[in-house]
Here is the input.
Amino acid sequence: MKKTNRKEKNIEKKQHNKYDKGQIFVKVTAGVLAILMVGGTAITLVYALM
Here is the structure.
């Protein structure tokens, strides 16, 4: 019984700490870069069509 309790506690801890600071930073940075790429493409198209 004690082994299952330890496993359950470990599973709860893993689910609770699903995201750490590094993963959040990477996702935010990727989002900012994606916005910059889309914006750059749009600006390039506007200048090319003028």
Observations:
- Residues 21-49 form the longest helix (29 residues).
